[in-house]
């Protein structure tokens, strides 16, 4: 009595397609997804994106809003118990329709004899054009062009821009470059930001390494590939990966000062096959951020000068902070009583400086270490 007998097998209602996917829908990725944090909507979340981009009927035109929303912070990959990298799936779909304007910019940056003189000229004249009226004109002038980058892309007149370098890092430390014949077991992969910006990061990394008895080599290098991958130009990423692997293979240790470059260099094996992949794996195993390097075997001389200010640490990712997220971050920093926010990524420094607007000093951890040695 009370027992229903059915001729339908219990397997009739099992969703085999769903069970065949690695995602268990546990929702841990949503808990750390910055886009979901803002929109609070399943279709704008890591878990929802996984379902959308792996659906049999996926079409870019119907899912463009979703595909272009991911900020490639890799938080989903870090927390997923099944190792699913939703951001990578998103980028694969994005690569089917790479951004043309971004591609033109990356092609320009890939020609240093054209790009670097422009950066230096802008650095020398920044005191003239980085003022309220010229910046407002630049905002209006760039608006129709930046729409080709993204519908919401703009260069706000009140945005705090990084100081561009009148002399590039490789020029300021020419004696350490591979081109000048400098040799050694430790390479410093400075990346684009430290070379083009006068943010103090590259100089600080070199100074700290020297203080610990290391004369780093600045090897020939191309962009690590993170921004290029983000805009869907995967062939250029592979080309740069091959170049950097070939350039870095001869060194025993590879130090970086940028969290994004660190991640990108460690991910190089996924782009290559065969012998190239083995070389990329060997390079990836040598890569360490300056903080990781010093925390391990790299710290030979202990800093002697204590920091007189209260410091809090911002854990870096590729998050381009949305206003709602940053309001909480700013409140947390203010509540901590910190006078300095330390971070490990030049891109994070730009976002923090724009969000905090001078309320708290923003520094790279290498800069703080350099000051502790002085």
Q: What do you see in this structure?
A:
The protein is mainly alpha-helical and 374 residues long. The chain folds into 4 domains: 20-94, Fumarate Reductase Iron-sulfur Protein, Chain B, domain 2, CATH 1.10.1060; 100-146, no CATH class; 169-298, no CATH class; 311-373, no CATH class. 51% of the residues lie in helices and 6% in strands. It has 22 helices and 6 strands. It has a 3-stranded parallel sheet with strand order 1-2-3. α4 crosses α7, α14 crosses α22 and α16 packs across α18. It is globular. The N and C termini lie far apart (86 Å). The model is unreliable at 318-325 (pLDDT under 50).
Topology:
Blueprint: H1 16-19, H2 28-32, H3 34-39, H4 46-53, H5 60-67, H6 75-79, H7 86-94, H8 100-109, H9 112-124, H10 126-129, H11 132-146, H12 169-172, E1 186-189, H13 191-196, H14 201-211, H15 226-230, H16 234-248, E2 253-256, H17 259-266, H18 274-286, E3 287-289, H19 290-298, E4 311-313, H20 323-336, E5 340-343, H21 346-356, E6 361-364, H22 365-373
Parallel strand pairs: 1-2, 2-3, 4-5, 5-6
Helix pairs in contact: 4-7, 14-22, 16-18
